[in-house]
Amino acid sequence: MGPTFFRSGLTSLLSISSVCLSYAADVQKRDLVAPASPVANWTFTGCYTDQVGQRTLTGGAEATNAMTNTQCIQFCAAKGFYYAGTEYSAECYCGNSFMNGGTIANVDDCNMACNGNANEPCGGPNRLTVYNTTIPPGPVGPFINPGVNGFRTLGCYSDSVQARTLPIGVQTAGGPGSMTVALCISACAAGNYLYAGLEYAQECYCSNAISNDGAPAPIGDCDMVCNGNSSEFCGAGNRLNVYTTRQAPDGWSSLGCYTDGVNGRTLTTREFPSGGLTTESCLAACKTAGFAYAGTEYAGECYCGNSFANGGGPAPDGNAGCNMACNGNAQETCGGPNRLNVYQYGDGPVSSSSASAAVSTTATSSSVPSPTSLPPGWSYQGCWIDNANGRVMNNGQADNNKMTVESCIATCSSLGYSVAGMEYSVQCFCDNFLRNAATNTSDSDCSMTCGGNSAEKCGAGNRLSVYSNSSLAVLPVPSVQKTNLTGSWTYAGCLTDDAQTRALPYQIILNNNNTANNCISQCSAFGYNAGGMEYGNECYCGDVADTQAVGATYVSESQCQFACSGNATTICGGARRLSFYTWNGTALTTWNYASGNAAGAYQFLIGGVIVPLVTQAARNGKVTFMEKWGTGPPNTTGAYELDIAQLDNFTAAWRPMHVKTDIFCSSSLTLPDKAGRQINIGGWALDSTFGIRLYWPDGSPGVWGTNDWHENVQQVSLQAGRWYPTAMIMPNGSILVVGGEQGSNGAPTPSLEILPTVGPVLFCDWLNRTDPNNLYPYLAVLPTGGVFVAYYNEARILDEGTLQTTKVLPNMPGAVNNFLAGRTYPMEGTAVLLPQSAPYTDPLKIMICGGSTPYQGFALDNCVTIAPEVENATWTLERMPSKRVLTCMTALADGTYIIINGGHQGFGGFGLCTDPNLNAVLYDPSRPLNNRFTVMANTTVARLYHSEAILMDDGRVLVSGSDPEDDRYPQEYRVEVFVPPYLMGNPTRPTINMSNSQKDWAYGQGYTFTSSQTISKVTLLGAGSSTHGNSIGQRTIIPAFSCTGGSCTVTAPPNAHVCPPGWFQMFALNSNGTPGMAQWVRIGGDPAKLGNWPPGGGFQLPGI
Q1: Do 616 and 542 touch, CB atoms closer than 8 A?
Q2: Are 938 and 919 a contacting pair, CB within 8 Å?
Q3: Residue 915 is inside which H or E element, if any?
Q4: Fewer CB within 10 Å of terminal CB in the chain, N or C?
């Protein structure tokens, strides 16, 4: 566990509101004006509650008779905090989040003038005047690159020209003048080296070991910036910035995440390495002290031992609990609360039996054990031979010089075991049976007295005194399971797992039920064609290619001898040895790899003026861009409209628009009114979270409009403040708004509401229970009635009238080794509705792709699909060609989908995603299941948090944004397009003409258009907006149509459940699959009369 912190003298003083500081005289509230931005990139957030002893901001603190908000911000920024708050005229508090229930208060409650400026408020009694920045304080570089492509930094190391620490010098792309950390790591990785190092700004070295006494040096010694990137360091003279893919230093191997407890340590000796703790410093300290096991915990604690004590072992939740970055190296994990990252040196410690030989014992001719008070039901079962064919009992406890028969039985009984065995006077073993064809022997063989009671016998060398509370079962020597295997699995052999990178990447700990079938059935369920078991209770999944990549080889079957935890008669590997199985049936997953025009292409479209958070196509042929105005860059207007017809004139292409409040993490829709107005809902904080903003698209391609975003939060607002909500058009044309939080990192808003406002908000326990992992939930109107909602890893159907739950669906599959993985923000994937085709008799299917696991943020490599309306609906899983989080997915004009943007690791949030995924992937639902993904073209632009993708009227995908707010990846202003295959090679498009009278559709009716070419397919794509991976409003419909010559008639969908009212892009495709330009059509009218809403607040209304 972590250390106990004590309040400093300053903090103690600040907790007393009557300290000897003179406070400014009260000023009338109307005279006190909080400066909006007293320091660059810091903005006023509001007045917040506070309490002595339970501070809202718990980071730093100071007090002065000259306090101002500027001084407090400067104090907090210098310490690296994101929030600064002033209180009681003279006090300053800092933090990175609001703690202890601190909430927004009335701004007039902050009514005490600052001691240093009587015109501005510095809080009040138990009230904080709060400022916030979203830009990390302090310098932005140069810095030590934390690592790329699986390599992590080890810091700065010594080097010498005569005796290189990493002896192998390599050339990198572009030569010495272009050197970067990424280029050097790439060169070393290509040579299959485990270490990479950079020196003298331009030199790159590789090796598989640190040589010639190279050792860590002060981090400041590596102070030369890279020739190819001045924001990162590349060593210095005789100094290397070193990187490695190894999980542990030379000679050590990682054993994974283990349980621990404050009152009973798994590793019982604590060491105190100097400086901030790193994996390397702890392991070195344990090795120096003569220990074979080392463990790091709670970011800063180091423990050592030669055995595992107090029942400590592999954690039941796998690596999930080892989630805290090391104090001395944030790129490493140093355990967690009651969790140890455990490492073993070499082959581990010397056998405990030799160490126990020093225990004073007396062998005697007496063969009758004489325990005095056995628990009820327990009895002596004889003396048994151990180790003839391997251990006959598992679950050995820590050696105990005071052991008795009673104490061993008590231990085993408390752990739930029915058999207890004592050996070598001090060793206690627990199990539910005897293993490995154990044989009984004479009681006289168990001749050693117990360490804690010389009147009792506790086994001997390789002899167990056995007690049980039931009939004693003896199991045979375990064997490999080769028959009755699930599916098309076959046993391949005993495989090495000695490399620093695991032979199979996904580990599952099955302490009680690991068997061949349990393990490999999980692997194949998630699309992996290789699986194996190790150490009895460990299951691993991956692909055969993974084992080939690390050079794993087959060895003698004698090296795989551990019994399975779920079936002690079968074998589940050995120490670093896998009982290895492969899938030999029909391929579980087959990906397609496109080339040339079939791969599509990324193209630069135009330079941007903002980093958008929301993009949305409009029926005037343009695209609206909205940014986090107020918390974004200064001197922007918060919104722009991109005119695709004026790309050659940068100024004319971008029409400035304006918002009044911050749309940061809001939700957008296109309304079904006759103007096709766009609505934006919710936002960052305070009034923004209640905001309702409307824009009536006007103008035309090449001609600027004059309309702008309009809002009036005093007249028209949400009933509940919402940050990260989702909105959807209901079958009756009203707007459903779901979920969110009360403001920036605030309390949940676990409710639903309807716009225009009808009744109060509706509390949802399922949103409250899953906060904060349910933000931007996925919504869909179902053809048979009801509303589908997916959030975190759950899904349900709501009655569209009462909005109460009518059906709870199964939880979504997550990662093969972590069912707690999530699909909505912050473990952000994306969802789409698969095509609905006339005559609309097939059930609607909804697909959700990507996401990540909690704590470490391992991105998911799968999509899951469900038909929620069918009886006993289940999820179908398909593996993607790569892992992806912060996913964007866009429906294309031909009924396929493009998956782009995001990264291979991380979460939603600033600086929380790494390793960009630069590859586009096409999903074609018309292909056979598990053969629907095609690997397409790559981009060179990293698009992570706050990136978007929408379909343009010309059938291309507009790709924008990326706002990571860190030093690794830039804020991305460039706008690209992805050109789908149907537009590659400069095909001739059909020219589609449709009169305005044919663009307002009633359900089930026919409407006409003309085409210059034969039409093979018509598609209707719902007008969508893109934000945070959520394609809000997306729906793909393939209606019935017929053509005679150049005249075609298309039949509208039958009702508002198959097709909720709204605007759609209609595409007509020729016989080659090339679409014409989209025609915007409205389907289902405006049944909620949104054209007359809102009636007040000065909004321009189109009518109905």
Answers
A1: no
A2: yes
A3: strand 913-916
A4: N
Q: Which H or E element spans position 410?
A: helix 405-414
Give 14's contacts (C-beta < 8 A, 6+ positions apart). Answer: 61, 62, 63, 91, 93
CB distance 1101 to 694 below 8 Å:
no
864 burial class (0-12, 13-18, 19+ CB within 10 angstroms)? buried
Q: For residue 397, give the amino acid letter.
A: Q
Closest of 311, 200, 334, 194 to residue 259, by C-alpha = 311
Both tokens of residue 819? Answer: 């069912």
What are residue 787's phi and psi, to 5 degrees? Answer: -120, 120
Q: How many Å apart are CA 750 and CA 1099, to the nearest integer?
A: 29
**DSSP for 549-565, written as a single string:** HTT--EE-GGG--PEET
Going by C-alpha positions, the residue among 797, 813, 814, 795 that lies closest to residue 805 is 797
Those residues whose C-beta lies under 8 Å from the C-beta of residue 533, and which sit 6 or more positions away, are 514, 515, 516, 519, 539, 540, 564, 571, 572, 573, 578, 579
Is residue 743 within 8 Å of residue 721, measured between CB atoms? yes
Contacts of 149 (CB under 8 A, 6+ apart): 182, 185, 186, 189, 915
Cα(115)–Cα(298) distance, rounded to whole angstroms? Answer: 41
Per-residue confidence at 31, pLDDT binned at 50, 70, 90? Answer: low
For the chain, what is the radius of gyration of the CA atoms? 33
User: How far is Cα of residue 100 from the mean position of the Cα atoms in its chain?
Assistant: 26
User: How far is CA 600 from each of CA 576, 762, 934, 980, rounded to the nearest angstrom?
Assistant: 44, 46, 11, 5
Tell me how far the alpha carbon of residue 885 is from its chain's centroid: 7
Burial 493-504 (b: 16+ CB within 10 A, else e): bbbbbebbbbbb
pLDDT at 361: 33
For residue 953, which of 832, 1076, 1083, 1037 has the smallest C-alpha distance? 1076
Residue 311, both tokens:
């029942």
Instruction: Express each pLDDT in 528-550 by its tens digit.
Output: 999 999 999 999 999 999 999 99
Which two three-digit tokens encode residue 910? 């600033």
CA distance 383 to 466: 6
Widest CA span of the chain, in angstroms? 109
pLDDT tens for residues 268-299?
Answer: 999 988 888 888 889 999 999 889 999 999 88
Average pLDDT of 1071-1097?
96
What whole-number distance in Å separates Cα of residue 692 and Cα of residue 673? 16
User: Which H or E run includes 765?
Assistant: helix 765-770
d(Cα 911, Cα 902) in Å, to the nearest integer?
A: 13
Return the minimum-mean-pLDDT range out of 361-365, 826-830, 933-937, 942-946. 361-365
pLDDT band at 177 (very low <50, low <70, confident <90, very high): confident
All residues at 6 or more sequence positions from 1104 whose CB lies less than 8 Å from its CB, including other chains: 673, 674, 1086, 1089, 1091, 1092
Q: How far apart are CA 1060 and CA 785, in angstroms?
A: 11
Give Cβ neighbours of residue 741 (< 8 Å, ≥ 6 apart). Answer: 722, 723, 724, 747, 748, 749, 771, 772, 775
